[in-house]
């Protein structure tokens, strides 16, 4: 599956955004209320925007944080959608609410690419439009089943399976996949020696 560079970046961003939700992460820091939220404050939102090189981010506040958390929850629904029609409906609502205004741009040393958000859009609308269109690309290609959750029992992170045969089961083969394979190997050895 050939995915344009800017679409791939947006897919990486939406996966990282969905995985900031407390219920999506393998337990990091436990609080009295459960796993920590990866977007636990405005400073974390600024860090997320910087990590993903989100352009045009001005002053952010609690309202922006709440709006991004809402967009994050809607993206999680797309990953959980049972079929392409449901996923498409969810993406359509997200992108429409963001007030998409597609335009070509070549800022900050990047070649020409499409921004789907209005020039002075909020960070939530920016994410909803750009990441929503990246998910739309996957759905239009007939590849909605590539939007997955890690099958490791203690994980559940979102990921986009870009393997040729759609066989990826874990968010990371180095962590979740390797950990489960080692556990299965040890169980087989223990059973064989018993």
Mean pLDDT: 85
Radius of gyration, rounded?
18 Å
* Beta content: 5-15%
Annotation, overall tally of beta strands: 6
The main sheet comes to: 2 strands, antiparallel
* Largest sheet strand order: 1-2
Give the secondary structure arrangement, pairings included.
Layout: H1 5-18, E1 30-31, E2 34-35, H2 42-51, H3 62-80, H4 84-97, E3 103-105, E4 113-115, H5 123-140, E5 147-149, E6 158-160, H6 173-193
Structural account:
The strands form three sheets. The chain has a two-stranded antiparallel ribbon. Strands 3-4 form a two-stranded antiparallel ribbon. The chain is built from six helices and six strands. It has 194 residues and is mainly alpha-helical. It starts with a helix and ends with a helix. Helix 3 (62-80) packs antiparallel against helix 4, helix 3 runs parallel beside helix 5 (123-140) and helix 4 (84-97) packs antiparallel against helix 5.
Summarize the structure.
The protein is mostly helical. It has helices spanning 5-18, 42-51, 62-80, 84-97, 123-140, 173-193; strands spanning 30-31, 34-35, 103-105, 113-115, 147-149, 158-160.
Features of the shown structure:
mainly alpha, two-stranded antiparallel ribbon, about 190 residues, 6 strands
